[in-house]
Amino acid sequence: AALTVRFLTRRFIGEYGDMEFIYSHSLTVDGREILFHIWDVPNSQVRQTEEGSSEEKRIQWADSFVLVYSICDRASFNILPLKIQFIKAAKEGQSQEKVPIVIVGNKRDLHHQRVVSSEEGRLLALSLDCGFYEVSAAE
Fold first, then answer.
1. What is the CATH number of the domain that holds 121?
2. Where are the transmembrane segments (predicted)?
C-alpha cells in the first residue's frame, strides 16, 4: 500500500490497515494518456485466499502484475514463486501472450534490517522471467 500511495500521490505514509483498495490514476507517458486501475491487496489477504475464487478474480481482472515484497521479511519473498506460477497458469493458459510481471523489493532504505539480498531478488526474477526492481517507498 505504501508503494501504491507513493506512486499515486508522491507522499509516503508508513502505516496502513489490512484492507484492499482499487485506485484509478491517469498518467501521460510518451505523449499518451495511460489510465491505471490498481487493485492493491495486502499480503495477508493474498495468503488467506491463496487459490480461491477471489484470487482468480483478481488475476483475470488484471493485465499486468507488480508483486512487492519487503527486503526485511523473508516470508514475503518466499511466497513469490508460488504466486507467480499461479498467475502464469491462470493468465498464460488462456493465451500464448506473456503476462507482464515485475517483482519489487521494497524498503531499500532499511538496509540494516535486510534479510533478502538484491542478488536473490534478481535471480528469482531471472528464473521466473520477470522484471525486477528494488525501491524505497519512504525515499
1. 3.40.50.300
2. none
Residue at 139 is within a domain: no
* Phi, psi dihedrals of residue 39, rounded to the nearest 5°: -100, 100
The answer to whether residues 71 and 134 touch, using CB atoms and an 8 Å cutoff, is: yes
Angle of helix 53-61 relative to helix 80-92, nearest 10 degrees, comes to 60
In a domain, 122, yes or no: yes
- pLDDT of 2-19, one tens digit each? 776 667 776 766 666 666
Question: Could you tell me the pTM of the whole model?
Answer: 0.78
